[in-house]
Amino acid sequence: MTSSKELFALDAPHGQGGVFFAWQRASGGFLATTGYDQVVHIYNRHAEAVEFIKLPGMCCCFGWDKDGDLLAVITDKSSNLLIWDANSFRSQWIDTNIRDPLNVLVWGKSSPILAIGSYRGNLMIYNHKTSRRVPIIGKHTKAITCGAWSEGGLLALGSEDRSLSISNTEGDTLRVATLRAEPQDIQFSEMKQDERTAGENTVSLIVGGKTLYLFNLYDPENPIELAFQPKYGDIVAYKWFGDGYILIGFSKGFFVVISTHMKEIGQELFQVKNHKDNLSGIAISTSLGKAASCGENTIKIHELHDLKDTSNVITLDEERSLEHMEWSEDGQLLAVSTSKGNVHVFLSKLPLIGSALQSRVAYLTSLLEVTITSVLEQGQTLTISAEIEPTFVALGPFHLALGMNNRVWFYALGDLTVEFIRDKEYLGTVKDIHLNADYCSVLFDGKVQLHILEGEGHDGDLSEERESKLFPEQGKNYVVSCHSLTQDFLIIGTDMGGISYFFLEDWTTIHDFRHNTGIREIHPEPNGTKVVFIDVKGHGHVYNPVNDDFAIVREFPDKIQKVLWDNSLTDKDVFLAFDGDHVHTFLVNPDDSEGISCRNLGKTKIPPGQFPILLFSGELSLQTQSGKLVKQVLSTHEISPNISEYSNTELRTILDKNMALGRFRNAWAICQILDKEESWRKLGFEAMKRHEIEFAMRVFRHIGDVGTVWTLEELKYVEDKKLLSGHVTMIQGDYDAAQTLYLQSGSPVEALHMRRDLLHWDQALHLAIKLAPHEMPYISKEYAQQLEFTGDYTGSLVHYDKGVLPKPSNTDEEEHNAFCKGGIARMSIRCGDVRRGMEICHHLKHRTLMKECAEILESMKQYSDAAQLYEQGHYYDKAAYLYIKLKNWVKIGELLPNISSPKIQLQYAKAKESEGKHKEAVQAYLAARDYDSAVRIYLDHLKDPESAVKIVKETRSTEGAKLVARFFLKLGDYNSAIQFLVISKCVDEAFQLAQQHGKMNLFAEIIGDEATPEDYNSMALHFDSEKNGLQAGRFYYKAGHFSKSLRHLLKVASANAESDGEALNLAIEVVGKSGDNHLSRQLIDFLMGETDGIPKDAKFLFRLYMAKKQYKEAAKTAIIIAREEQSLGNYRNAHDVLFNMYQELLTNNIPVPADMKTNLMILHSYTLARIHIKQGDHLKGARMLLRVAKNISKFPTHTVPILTSTVIECHRSGLFQSAFNYATILMRPEHRNDIDEKYRKKFEGIIRKRPKKDGGDGVEEPPKNTPCLFCSNPVPESDLYCPQCKNNLPYCVATGYHVTATDLTTCHHCSFPAFRSELVKRAQNSEPCPMCGNALEENSLKVMNPSQLKKAKEELEDSGNDSQTNGDSLNGLDREEGHLSTSSSGGSNSSSRPSSYRP
């Protein structure tokens, strides 16, 4: 009892003072009480008094017989016995013939026999059944105080004379035992012994309140008397329980358990102080499995299987002390009496009566109270007070039925109210009852009555004949053993094994099923489309009435108390069976390959005293004996919210559970944690079995199984369940089951297709006979192919013959026949019928067939026939090969033009050579690509060295070269011999030959870069010995001896300073390849003149830096070189040096120095000036010359000519002020004498006619403004600096003006910007790019925007960091003059190149 509920209380029914009570035996329906008021009260279980019996004196003892039918009462002032009949409510007084006061009465355990003892020790034994009375005078010398009957009819009595007597039913004394004190509470029971004896073998009693006396009936001479610790106090009461255990209550509140087994006697198995001061009573209910004790105002209840577990504590606050307690025999009620004379009755166990529908449950919460609640929605509860204590309950969608015996009370259920409709009596005791929305079905006396719930008029469509019906119908003699009612069907099970479906809408039986034995129970799922039934043998079965599928439930428990289907839609195929201790969970698969099937998922332990009533989505609702509803998740459905806490083994178990239940979302989450392909595949296949194709595709897509995903993609829209099951089963490899499913589906031909795909040709042919006879020739063809492959040629020949269509009607059929005939040809040859095979080959004239048959003949060593077929099939190489075996050279000669195999050509060549036909042999050798043999024949036999040399040079044949080299050696032609020795890889031999005959230079030229380092070293040593330093240095370099190479090369360069270019260039290459800093420093010292005091040309230093990829230093050197070239007047060379270095720096992502950009811009402006003047565009030419003239110090060689051109072009273009300015400069003394005489007078005239500042003739027009590329501010078109945004402007390589955003492109070779229109004109005129000199292609000149230009021109990215970039010097004369003074100074200093300079 997990909670207490007081059923009722009797407040002092007999006045103040003690009260005594006794529960009716067996049923426990009545409670008898008495006290000091000389009255006996009889109450029912609902505290209603059913009888009051007035006594002639105070009741001294009363008790119920074993069946609870009779209550016996004796008083202290009468010798008569009162018997009250509980069935008739009548009292009867019986004279005991004992004249002294009566003291005790004891009813027998096995018969209605009563023993009555008196105060003087007399005894009467009364048999109520026979009314026989047996008086025994002087049984004891003093008052008989206690007694007990055994199951075997023995009577044990205790008396104040301190003795124990054992008598039979006649009153004869069998044993007498003397005691040390007065006895109390005699009981018969079975004591545990080593040798088992059937029945009660021990009499136990309390002696003097201190000891427990055990008297063994089979060993009367050795009684056992157990004493206990004094601290426990006196023994108040004791109870036997279990297998020989005794529970003892002591007055000081102790609660002790001992065992009567001889090995354990004297040991306390359990001890606890249950009450603080005193204990007044104990009780045990074996039906409940509980023990209780009372003391003070408290009741404590323990579980018998674990007494340490105190399951409940009841405190009666209004009571001072409790005196006595007793459970009803069925354990439902516990009564306790108090010192005030009150009696409290507690409900400790309710009948487990209930019913469930969908998610609602109706169950007993008190003896007269039924509660309806929803397991899904909390708070929706209805309570019904019953008129009677129901023994069965039935719940419908809108109604509730309560009843007992043959009477049923019906209630209508509202949302918040309950309304009584009516009660109805049936013709027999109701065994089972079910409700749906409109009808009730009741089972009684082997019949089922189906009737409407709310009577006529409830539904206007119901006629009188549809209001009620009795089964079995008239004329049928079966007995209904069970039934169930769904919304649409009444399902009936019979003792003859029949299951009938009665359709309520049509009011007729629509389906019958016959089982081989009687049906005991039937449990349909909510819709009735699946049924679990139990036959009289206890076997469970599952049945599908839709298609009559039927299967036994394996591992079904033997003793079943309840079967429940899961009421949720997600788990509608799950049901459980309860065997009293466990619920066994089963899963039904209605789409199994063999029909419906069922498998056991596992079992769940149910706590004692709880009973399953509803299963919803794996959560089991259990009814408890205390009238409560508890929930428990089935172990097959249980999973922790935090699945990451599980081990991999546990996760795999949970995965199996979830897959079995079809809970694929949970399974997906588990697989993600396991992350094993095996688990994912398992999940995917399970989803396929459940026809969850989309989910299965998701799984296989996750693991990258593309093939399976594509396969499932084709199954997504298959609606035929059998067909889909067949496909799934085939994928999983169960082909026989798949065939069965295919044949049951709407497309049985799929079975044939499967067998064909699996190459199961015997089964395919068998299926084709019925399913597709027209496919048999094609299957025979495929079967024959397989047999041919496996080597069964005879069988293959038979099926190829069967595969030939008699009358082909189209091209495909003709091709099919040709294939079969080809197979016949091959198999005929293999089976020995060569003639037939050859005839078919000649008839079909199919090259491939001829080849196949020829190969078979060749393997059979039929070379002549095989060669013939090869030749007819144009397989000339194979034919020739066989003709060679046959030594048929004539035939080979005929086939030779068609033969491509070098091997055959070679064999033919050898044959011709052996015959002395060298010309034919050499041609065959060449065709066979055996060039060495061809060279040999040309030299040895045909005496044609020119052809041999030609072959060697074309093929680079090593062996051929050796032959030619030896030939020339014989002729004394050493040059040719050395050449061919090198070709033949005989380098050592060629070296020695060259050394002997002074041909080392030729050898060095021939060997090139193909020699080994050792060969190069040998050559270097040779040239070193001959004092040829340049060649020695070259070959030391190739041999990898960089230090020696550099030493020799520098020696050559020092010795021959005038022609040191080749030696220095090679030295630079050596240093660059070596990567040795020491060698690099050595060479730099030489180039700078540190070694011999003669500085070398800066171009060698530039090349050195480039070879070492030291681009920054190379750039500085390039600027110096350019200045030298520029100072010498070699402006194009200076331009090319700067441009190439500029490109090299950009390629290697190195910033371009400002000096290099400025010098390149000025040189390019000079180049453009010449181009514009040549093209007649004098204004542009003048603008470029003005830019050059502003930097005239950089052109010292041609200062006067350039200024002269500037004056002339400016005057010609109308730039009179600029012409005047530069004419003035020219007429200065340092330049005057250098002016050409023909221009001097003109310049003097220009100076005399100075342009007017206030307008008029000779005034220079301002330059045209164009927008800045970056900020759109107007800037003179020839200026390369924007004063607004402070940016340097990129210039056009075609005009020299700064570019604009509207007409922008870049050269596709050098990536310099330009006006697109200008470059397009040059491209159309086939003119190259002025900057890089490469040809322009109009299609490659793409329109660009400024942002693209920034990416394309890397020099613009660091324009803000450089102090001078292209265009810095062009933004005003005053600013430029200051700049010119600096750069001019730098230019003059750099040209001297002092020896202390280090880049």
UniProtKB/TrEMBL annotation:
Its main location: other. The keyword Transcription regulation does not apply. Residues 1290-1335 form the IFT121-like zinc finger domain. Keywords: Cell projection, Cilium, Cilium biogenesis/degradation, Cytoplasm, Cytoskeleton, Flagellum, Repeat, TPR repeat, WD repeat. Residues 843-1051 form the IF140/IFT172/WDR19 TPR domain. SMART domains: WD40 (SM00320). It holds the Pfam family TPR_IF140-IFT172. Residues 1381-1399 have a biased composition (Low complexity). One of its GO terms (biological process) is protein localization to membrane. GO terms for cellular component: intraciliary transport particle A; motile cilium; photoreceptor outer segment. Residues 361-637 form the WDR19 WD40 repeat domain. Transmembrane segments: none annotated. Residues 680-772 form the IFT80/172/WDR35 TPR domain. Residues 1349-1399 are annotated as: Disordered. Coiled coil: none annotated. It is found in: Cell projection, Cilium, Flagellum; Cell projection, Cilium, Photoreceptor outer segment; Cytoplasm, Cytoskeleton, Cilium basal body. Residues 19-341 form the WDR19 first beta-propeller domain. As component of the IFT complex A (IFT-A), a complex required for retrograde ciliary transport and entry into cilia of G protein-coupled receptors (GPCRs), it is involved in cilia function and/or assembly. Essential for functional IFT-A assembly and ciliary entry of GPCRs. Associates with the BBSome complex to mediate ciliary transport. This is WD repeat-containing protein 19. It comes from Tigriopus californicus.
